[in-house]
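[[Sequence with C-alpha coordinates]]
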Amino acid sequence: MTTEVMPTSAYELLESGSYRASILTRGPWHPEHQHAGPPIALVCRAIELAAVEHGLTHLARLTANLLRPVPIGELAIKVANDYVGRNAGHFSARLMAGGKEVARFTALAQRENDVHIPDGLPGHPLPMASKGPEDSAAGVFPFAGKHVGYADLVETRVAHGRLFDGPCAVWFRLRHPLLDSELPSVYQRVAVAADSGNGVSAILDFKTYSFVNSDLTINLLRKPKGEWICLDARTHLGPDGGGLSESALYDIHGLIGRATQSLSVSRRG
Protein backbone atom coordinates (compact mmCIF):
# COMPACT_ATOMS: atom_id res chain seq x y z
CA MET A 1 0.00 0.00 0.00
CA THR A 2 1.07 3.57 -0.63
CA THR A 3 2.40 5.83 2.10
CA GLU A 4 1.94 9.03 0.08
CA VAL A 5 0.15 11.91 1.77
CA MET A 6 -3.44 12.26 0.56
CA PRO A 7 -4.10 15.74 -0.94
CA THR A 8 -7.36 17.53 -0.19
CA SER A 9 -8.20 18.44 -3.79
CA ALA A 10 -7.28 17.55 -7.35
CA TYR A 11 -5.89 21.02 -8.13
CA GLU A 12 -4.60 24.16 -6.46
CA LEU A 13 -5.46 27.54 -7.97
CA LEU A 14 -2.29 29.64 -8.14
CA GLU A 15 -2.00 33.43 -7.87
CA SER A 16 -1.01 33.53 -11.55
CA GLY A 17 -4.40 32.08 -12.50
CA SER A 18 -2.89 28.74 -13.48
CA TYR A 19 -3.39 25.46 -11.62
CA ARG A 20 -1.12 22.94 -9.94
CA ALA A 21 -2.23 19.31 -10.16
CA SER A 22 -2.01 17.05 -7.13
CA ILE A 23 -1.27 13.32 -7.21
CA LEU A 24 -5.02 12.66 -6.93
CA THR A 25 -5.09 13.23 -10.70
CA ARG A 26 -2.55 10.47 -11.42
CA GLY A 27 -3.72 7.94 -14.01
CA PRO A 28 -2.97 4.23 -14.52
CA TRP A 29 -0.73 4.46 -17.58
CA HIS A 30 2.27 6.41 -16.25
CA PRO A 31 3.11 7.63 -12.70
CA GLU A 32 3.88 11.18 -13.90
CA HIS A 33 0.79 11.58 -16.08
CA GLN A 34 -2.73 12.57 -15.14
CA HIS A 35 -5.85 10.55 -15.80
CA ALA A 36 -7.64 12.59 -18.47
CA GLY A 37 -10.86 12.91 -16.45
CA PRO A 38 -9.69 15.54 -13.94
CA PRO A 39 -8.06 17.96 -16.45
CA ILE A 40 -11.08 17.65 -18.76
CA ALA A 41 -13.26 18.59 -15.78
CA LEU A 42 -10.97 21.53 -14.98
CA VAL A 43 -11.34 22.87 -18.52
CA CYS A 44 -15.08 22.18 -18.32
CA ARG A 45 -15.14 24.51 -15.29
CA ALA A 46 -13.42 27.29 -17.27
CA ILE A 47 -15.86 26.92 -20.18
CA GLU A 48 -18.83 26.98 -17.81
CA LEU A 49 -17.60 30.26 -16.34
CA ALA A 50 -17.28 31.76 -19.81
CA ALA A 51 -20.73 30.53 -20.89
CA VAL A 52 -22.64 31.69 -17.81
CA GLU A 53 -21.58 35.28 -18.53
CA HIS A 54 -23.95 35.05 -21.52
CA GLY A 55 -26.77 33.34 -19.63
CA LEU A 56 -25.90 29.93 -21.13
CA THR A 57 -26.18 27.50 -18.24
CA HIS A 58 -26.52 24.08 -19.91
CA LEU A 59 -23.39 22.44 -21.33
CA ALA A 60 -24.86 20.33 -24.13
CA ARG A 61 -21.59 19.06 -25.58
CA LEU A 62 -17.94 18.94 -24.58
CA THR A 63 -15.27 17.47 -26.86
CA ALA A 64 -11.69 16.98 -25.68
CA ASN A 65 -8.90 16.25 -28.17
CA LEU A 66 -6.05 14.82 -26.10
CA LEU A 67 -2.87 15.80 -27.92
CA ARG A 68 -0.23 14.74 -25.39
CA PRO A 69 -0.15 13.11 -21.94
CA VAL A 70 -1.09 15.69 -19.31
CA PRO A 71 1.75 15.89 -16.75
CA ILE A 72 1.17 16.15 -13.02
CA GLY A 73 2.34 19.73 -12.73
CA GLU A 74 1.30 23.28 -13.52
CA LEU A 75 -1.48 23.85 -16.08
CA ALA A 76 -2.89 26.90 -17.82
CA ILE A 77 -6.26 27.21 -19.58
CA LYS A 78 -7.17 29.60 -22.39
CA VAL A 79 -10.86 29.90 -23.34
CA ALA A 80 -12.24 31.61 -26.47
CA ASN A 81 -15.82 32.57 -27.38
CA ASP A 82 -16.08 31.30 -30.96
CA TYR A 83 -19.69 32.38 -31.44
CA VAL A 84 -22.37 33.34 -28.93
CA GLY A 85 -25.98 33.75 -30.01
CA ARG A 86 -29.22 34.22 -28.12
CA ASN A 87 -29.82 30.57 -27.25
CA ALA A 88 -26.50 28.84 -27.90
CA GLY A 89 -22.80 29.54 -27.74
CA HIS A 90 -19.78 27.77 -29.19
CA PHE A 91 -16.61 27.88 -27.13
CA SER A 92 -13.08 26.52 -27.52
CA ALA A 93 -10.27 26.06 -25.04
CA ARG A 94 -6.62 25.07 -24.91
CA LEU A 95 -4.92 23.27 -22.04
CA MET A 96 -1.23 24.17 -21.68
CA ALA A 97 1.57 22.49 -19.71
CA GLY A 98 5.24 23.44 -19.81
CA GLY A 99 4.60 25.84 -22.69
CA LYS A 100 3.03 23.10 -24.83
CA GLU A 101 -0.58 22.56 -25.80
CA VAL A 102 -1.60 19.19 -24.36
CA ALA A 103 -5.34 19.22 -25.13
CA ARG A 104 -7.79 21.20 -27.23
CA PHE A 105 -11.51 21.52 -26.56
CA THR A 106 -14.74 22.63 -28.18
CA ALA A 107 -18.06 23.00 -26.39
CA LEU A 108 -21.68 23.92 -27.01
CA ALA A 109 -23.54 25.74 -24.25
CA GLN A 110 -27.26 26.43 -24.36
CA ARG A 111 -29.79 28.69 -22.66
CA GLU A 112 -32.17 26.71 -20.44
CA ASN A 113 -35.87 27.22 -21.21
CA ASP A 114 -38.95 25.86 -19.45
CA VAL A 115 -40.61 23.84 -22.23
CA HIS A 116 -43.56 21.47 -21.65
CA ILE A 117 -42.96 18.05 -23.20
CA PRO A 118 -46.16 16.16 -24.18
CA ASP A 119 -46.89 12.86 -22.47
CA GLY A 120 -46.52 9.57 -24.32
CA LEU A 121 -43.53 10.40 -26.53
CA PRO A 122 -41.45 7.39 -27.71
CA GLY A 123 -38.58 6.71 -25.30
CA HIS A 124 -40.18 8.77 -22.55
CA PRO A 125 -40.06 8.86 -19.65
CA LEU A 126 -36.30 8.57 -20.02
CA PRO A 127 -34.81 5.20 -19.00
CA MET A 128 -33.18 4.67 -15.61
CA ALA A 129 -29.86 3.03 -14.79
CA SER A 130 -30.15 -0.70 -14.02
CA LYS A 131 -29.52 -0.07 -10.30
CA GLY A 132 -29.08 3.00 -8.16
CA PRO A 133 -25.85 3.73 -6.27
CA GLU A 134 -27.32 2.68 -2.94
CA ASP A 135 -28.16 -0.77 -4.34
CA SER A 136 -24.79 -1.26 -6.07
CA ALA A 137 -21.69 -2.93 -4.64
CA ALA A 138 -18.45 -1.02 -4.08
CA GLY A 139 -16.02 -1.30 -6.98
CA VAL A 140 -12.20 -1.26 -6.90
CA PHE A 141 -10.02 -0.31 -9.86
CA PRO A 142 -7.25 -2.84 -10.66
CA PHE A 143 -4.62 -0.10 -10.22
CA ALA A 144 -5.98 1.11 -6.85
CA GLY A 145 -3.65 1.03 -3.83
CA LYS A 146 -0.37 1.11 -5.75
CA HIS A 147 -0.11 4.89 -5.28
CA VAL A 148 -2.37 7.84 -4.62
CA GLY A 149 -4.25 8.71 -7.79
CA TYR A 150 -7.54 8.73 -9.68
CA ALA A 151 -8.84 5.69 -7.78
CA ASP A 152 -8.64 7.80 -4.60
CA LEU A 153 -10.28 10.83 -6.22
CA VAL A 154 -13.50 8.95 -7.01
CA GLU A 155 -15.78 6.49 -5.24
CA THR A 156 -17.21 3.76 -7.49
CA ARG A 157 -20.13 1.35 -7.17
CA VAL A 158 -20.87 -1.35 -9.74
CA ALA A 159 -24.49 -1.59 -10.90
CA HIS A 160 -23.86 -4.54 -13.22
CA GLY A 161 -20.92 -6.40 -14.75
CA ARG A 162 -17.35 -6.33 -13.42
CA LEU A 163 -14.76 -3.57 -13.62
CA PHE A 164 -12.26 -4.00 -16.47
CA ASP A 165 -14.05 -7.15 -17.69
CA GLY A 166 -16.48 -6.26 -20.47
CA PRO A 167 -19.72 -4.26 -20.51
CA CYS A 168 -20.16 -2.65 -17.12
CA ALA A 169 -22.30 -0.02 -15.41
CA VAL A 170 -20.53 1.96 -12.68
CA TRP A 171 -21.64 4.84 -10.47
CA PHE A 172 -19.02 7.54 -9.79
CA ARG A 173 -18.90 10.13 -7.03
CA LEU A 174 -16.06 12.53 -6.22
CA ARG A 175 -14.36 11.92 -2.87
CA HIS A 176 -12.40 15.17 -3.18
CA PRO A 177 -13.21 18.46 -4.96
CA LEU A 178 -11.38 19.71 -8.02
CA LEU A 179 -10.43 22.84 -6.05
CA ASP A 180 -10.40 23.37 -2.29
CA SER A 181 -13.46 25.18 -0.87
CA GLU A 182 -15.38 24.87 -4.17
CA LEU A 183 -18.14 22.38 -4.90
CA PRO A 184 -17.72 20.83 -8.35
CA SER A 185 -20.58 21.47 -10.76
CA VAL A 186 -22.67 18.59 -12.09
CA TYR A 187 -20.94 18.98 -15.46
CA GLN A 188 -17.52 18.67 -13.86
CA ARG A 189 -18.70 15.50 -12.10
CA VAL A 190 -19.75 14.05 -15.45
CA ALA A 191 -16.39 14.95 -17.05
CA VAL A 192 -14.35 13.29 -14.28
CA ALA A 193 -16.33 10.07 -14.72
CA ALA A 194 -16.97 9.94 -18.47
CA ASP A 195 -13.32 9.50 -19.44
CA SER A 196 -13.31 6.14 -17.61
CA GLY A 197 -15.60 4.34 -20.07
CA ASN A 198 -12.72 2.54 -21.80
CA GLY A 199 -11.38 1.35 -18.46
CA VAL A 200 -14.52 0.13 -16.73
CA SER A 201 -15.61 -1.77 -19.88
CA ALA A 202 -12.15 -3.04 -20.89
CA ILE A 203 -12.11 -6.38 -22.72
CA LEU A 204 -8.30 -6.67 -22.94
CA ASP A 205 -5.93 -7.50 -20.08
CA PHE A 206 -4.82 -4.19 -18.54
CA LYS A 207 -1.37 -5.66 -17.73
CA THR A 208 -0.74 -6.78 -21.31
CA TYR A 209 -2.43 -4.16 -23.47
CA SER A 210 -2.73 -0.40 -23.65
CA PHE A 211 -6.08 0.98 -24.86
CA VAL A 212 -5.68 4.71 -24.34
CA ASN A 213 -8.28 7.14 -25.67
CA SER A 214 -7.16 10.15 -27.72
CA ASP A 215 -10.44 12.01 -27.36
CA LEU A 216 -13.68 12.22 -25.40
CA THR A 217 -17.03 13.60 -26.50
CA ILE A 218 -19.85 14.10 -24.01
CA ASN A 219 -23.38 14.93 -25.20
CA LEU A 220 -25.95 15.83 -22.55
CA LEU A 221 -29.68 16.09 -23.24
CA ARG A 222 -30.40 17.78 -19.90
CA LYS A 223 -28.67 19.17 -16.86
CA PRO A 224 -27.55 16.37 -14.51
CA LYS A 225 -28.60 16.38 -10.88
CA GLY A 226 -26.82 15.20 -7.74
CA GLU A 227 -23.40 13.81 -6.83
CA TRP A 228 -23.66 10.38 -8.51
CA ILE A 229 -23.02 9.80 -12.23
CA CYS A 230 -23.40 6.35 -13.83
CA LEU A 231 -21.51 5.10 -16.90
CA ASP A 232 -23.11 2.11 -18.62
CA ALA A 233 -20.10 1.42 -20.82
CA ARG A 234 -18.96 -1.04 -23.46
CA THR A 235 -15.86 -1.33 -25.66
CA HIS A 236 -15.63 -2.37 -29.33
CA LEU A 237 -12.28 -3.17 -30.98
CA GLY A 238 -11.29 -3.11 -34.64
CA PRO A 239 -8.64 -5.34 -36.28
CA ASP A 240 -6.14 -2.54 -36.93
CA GLY A 241 -5.36 -1.11 -33.49
CA GLY A 242 -8.45 1.07 -33.27
CA GLY A 243 -11.43 0.89 -30.98
CA LEU A 244 -14.44 2.70 -29.60
CA SER A 245 -15.80 2.98 -26.09
CA GLU A 246 -19.36 4.23 -25.70
CA SER A 247 -21.19 5.00 -22.46
CA ALA A 248 -24.79 5.78 -21.67
CA LEU A 249 -24.74 8.39 -18.89
CA TYR A 250 -27.23 8.53 -16.02
CA ASP A 251 -27.92 10.35 -12.79
CA ILE A 252 -30.28 8.95 -10.16
CA HIS A 253 -33.25 10.43 -12.07
CA GLY A 254 -32.48 8.71 -15.40
CA LEU A 255 -30.64 9.09 -18.71
CA ILE A 256 -28.66 12.31 -19.17
CA GLY A 257 -26.64 11.62 -22.33
CA ARG A 258 -23.83 9.71 -24.02
CA ALA A 259 -20.03 9.69 -24.10
CA THR A 260 -17.69 8.24 -26.72
CA GLN A 261 -13.93 7.68 -26.85
CA SER A 262 -11.67 6.73 -29.76
CA LEU A 263 -9.13 4.14 -28.63
CA SER A 264 -5.56 3.39 -29.69
CA VAL A 265 -4.79 -0.24 -28.90
CA SER A 266 -1.33 -1.77 -28.56
CA ARG A 267 0.56 -4.39 -26.59
CA ARG A 268 2.57 -3.10 -23.66
CA GLY A 269 6.35 -3.12 -24.15
The first strand starts at residue 11 and ends at 13. The chain has one domain: 11-112+131-267. The mean pLDDT is 95.
